[in-house]
Structures
1.
Amino acid sequence: MIQFNRQNLFGKEFEYIKDAYENGKISGDGKYTELCNHFMEKRFDAKKVMLTTSGTHALDLAAILVGIQPGDEVIMPSYTFVSTANAFLLRGAKPVFCDIRKDNLNMDETKIEELITEKTKAIVPVHYAGVACDMDKITKIAKKNDLTVIEDAAQGVNAKYKDKYLGTIGDIGCYSFHETKNYSMGEGGAIVVNDEEMIERAEIIREKGTNRKKFFRGEIDKYTWVEMGSSYLPSEINAAVLWNQLEHMDEIQKKRKNIFEMYYGGLKVLGDERKLRLPIINDFAESNFHMFYILLNSEKERNEMISYLKKNDVQAVFHYIPLHLSEFYKRNFKRIYLPVTEDLSSQIVRLPMFFNLSKKNVSFIVKSIKIKINE
């Protein structure tokens, strides 16, 4: 079976884990957490990066940090993972879903302003598949309406919008280092704080609502509970694994690009014949090649393709069920219609994509798709 995803190790992870134990600091914010934080700050030209226990918790922390309150509204795409909405629901806010663009499957920035009300507090663009949303237009709308921008860049680590890295453009960015992502610590994430006035509060919230970080830096002689927060620090064991991934960032990016281009080149003829549609990377975007997907012409074709590939020992998947079509949403909110989201989400097939995926396996997958399409 050609798996959809497989974790890759580069060889020094266990050495780094052992070192973390020998340093006597494995509960978080030790040597490897700091290495990862500083690497991303320098690499991405970010004001402040702090590892978290997950991408989900990065979003949770962001919602607390910007002061989301019951009754607030937050604009986001429905075509995203449930964590995007849950972070704000947990604070009592209402997710307001925006339809997506046909080209890159990202939030349609032309439909945002019609969704803004006096209750709107934030806009959450999700950079789907590591391809940037049109951030100039989104940030312009946010500034005009005095709204916060929280980038859900879970899939967008090391990708760019124009000359800026995703996660560093809005007020806050959120990364994921889940095992399915390009750079993985098994389970983990990071919050990127781009507003200097928010940095100290972000540290406090991340440290269970205490000013413990200031204490460890020698800025105060004791630490105490100063506001609400939670435990968002990952273990040094996880951070040690991520550090070896980040050391190989360029190698990972290059390999994923090669796999993406093999898929694209092999399936282009079917795209030209409109038997399927290939991913579109806009001129303003520099992808990190997080995924490769195809769009079939109907849900029936999509389901048949997934079944056919499974019979040929290829694990392909689709995602997501749009959040506005979920059972939870239907029970709690008024029904809405998002035509582009509903059409494209029913047609997508995600193909295997991971660092050690071989050229032979990619060729086999491409050949299988061609056979199925042309049968």
Note: The chain has two domains: 13-247, 249-374.
2.
Amino acid sequence: MNSYLIAQEPPPPAAKEAAKDAQNPLAMLGNPMFMFVIIGVFIFTMIIMPARRQKKDQATMMNALKRGAKVVTSSGIIGVVISVKDTEDELTLKSEDSKIKVLKSSVVRVLGQDETEVKV
């Protein structure tokens, strides 16, 4: 028996690319730009959004500070707010027998309202 080889004309390069993409529907996942987009979305959702939310919560808490609120500063001082100066961004705390002037931004947490009347 004789075997014959039938010669075919090679397909054009564009047809090869189309055939390759048609065979592999997940070819987009290997694209480096796609990976950069995925990493960008991950960074935005895990780092940027929580930081924005925390900054917004901190600003809301500072704007809500009023006389009689029991607060904790970043240095660990616990005191009761005596006065709040909005224009100068400072407040006065009373802790035991002393009065302290601190910046509003140093307040970390509000513990609630003091039950006793604040005396100046």
Note: The chain has a mean pLDDT of 81.
